[in-house]
Amino acid sequence: MPARVARALVLAAVFTCAACGLVYELALVALGSYLVGNSVTQASIVLSVMVFAMGIGSLLAKPLQSRPVAAFAVIEGVLALVGGLSVMGLYAAFAWVHVYQPVLIVVAFAIGALIGAEIPLLMTLLQRIRRQDAGSAVADLFAADYVGALLGGLAFPFLLLPTFGHIKGALLVGVVNAVAGIAVVLWLFRDRLRRRTRASLWVGMALVLAVLTGTYALADRFEITARQALYNDPIAVAERTPYQEIVITRKAALSGGADLRLFLNGDLQFSSVDEYRYHESLVHPALAGSRGRVLILGGGDGLALREVLRYPDVREVTLVELDPAMIRLARTYGPIEKLNGGAFEDPRVTTVTADAFNWLRDLRERFDSIIVDMPDPDDVATAKLYSVEFYGMVKRALAPGGRMVVQSGSPYFAPNSFWCIRESIAEAGFATTPYHVDVPSFGDWGFVLATPTAGPPPLALPADVPELRFLDASVLRAAEAFPKDRRERDVEVNTLVHPRLVDYEDGEWKLS
Fold first, then answer.
1. What DSSP designation does 366 have?
2. 364: buried, middle or exposed (CB in 10 Å: 19+, 13-18, 0-12)?
């Protein structure tokens, strides 16, 4: 084979292996974000450990340069196994062993060290095909490596994750890694290996492929079993979307009804047993003022929407939800559709599938009442929806005399987070009235009612409030009182540049 063709094939292997390596990195970051939250922390841990390990791997590869073909084939086989099985192993550690973070560090270090060992060996292989100036050889090698990384970085979010999911996507990449890294090199350099060594390496590659493909066949069953281990009740629906993991559990009750629970990325969003306490407390105080046009940010389950639609003088409701899969489930999954009373079919309702932050930036309309029903801010992506800048845009969208209400977490379990949200709303120019109620599934849960006026808005129910199951005037009076150990405290505001709310959330919920 001409040297130019052989070099091109080695560089193609470099390209493919680089793409696989970056997919492993992104898969570990994404999995940590789903399971643990705080995507910035997960990315920092994975990337810093892997880059450090790459340097260690490069140093450890020095003695292997005397036998680069066999060494590279072994390293690629081990990398295909470790990388391909990494997501499954971490999921198992999280579901059953509860030692996710230490295992993550070990796996990230192992993958990084193996990736780092590739470059010196590949450089040696290239030079054995044809001697070349060191600078030119490095340029060729790194060009193929970086372009391959680009391919892997784009393939993971746009192809692998939506098509195959986390576990199967990593296993599939492991197979590609094994074929590209072992087969190409062994074929090109077969005459430089002893027959026994060559046969052993081919058998090793076959075993690696057998393990990965066998695991791929069992991946769905494993994921169902591991996911169920994370939840107390039987899982009725599980769906991983480009934005989150949606899980719905159902447990039969002796009374004949079922406890239906919605989880997003493992965080409980509601229980059908007591969700009315939460949604009555969230919605009705905000509608004590003007309510002709209502905006709901979040709330894709339709339960806050159900409460809004109980007022016949509400003319229009716009609901903005990021994940279209959540709205689809709320419309078509019978138990949730029954719980929200088919709210999305009301002709007064307009749904928008968009990121609320970006949608508000371009908004030129105004609403009489705005209900902010977002998931808890346990990472930077959701913390921006609790920032001073976000509330400033909400303020711009309020009509004169309008009211905003924000679900604000637990003042008992996360008091710093609760008061940080309240301070951030005030920093945006709102007068605020914080309050809290007891929701058994959540515990003590808080809200902030706000208006862009000089004085705090009175906490009251509308004069024409419909019949409620939980909330009345006496409950609201008590809701404004906070015990001495959970009253307002000195906290910093949450902004886009300084997402301090993430640190408050991490510190408090991990201790609770």
1. -
2. exposed
Q: Are strands 398-407 and 349-353 parallel, antiparallel or unpaired?
A: unpaired
Q: Which residue in 25, 80, 76, 17 sits closest to 50, CA to CA?
A: 25
Alpha-helix runs per DSSP H in 36-67: 39-60
Q: Which of 263, 497, 493, 507 is nearest to 378 (CA)?
A: 507
Which pTM was predicted? 0.86
Angle at which helices 3-35 and 68-92 pack, to 10 degrees? 20
User: What 8-state DSSP symbol labels residue 412?
Assistant: T
- Dump pLDDT digits (tens) for 299-334: 999 999 999 999 999 999 999 999 999 999 999 999
Under a CB-based contact definition with an 8 Å cutoff, are residues 144 and 14 in contact? yes
Q: Quick check: 179 and 186 in contact, CB under 8 A?
A: no
List pLDDT tens digits, range 268-297.
999 999 999 999 999 999 999 899 999 999
Beta bridge partners of 371: 296, 405
Q: Do the strands 258-264 and 267-271 form a parallel or antiparallel pair, or are they unpaired?
A: antiparallel
Q: Are 367 and 397 in contact (CB under 8 A)?
A: yes
Tokens of 133: 């100036």
Whether 373 is catalytic is yes
Q: Which of 145, 368, 373, 503 is catalytic?
A: 373
**Residues 269, 262: Cα–Cα separation, whole Å:** 5
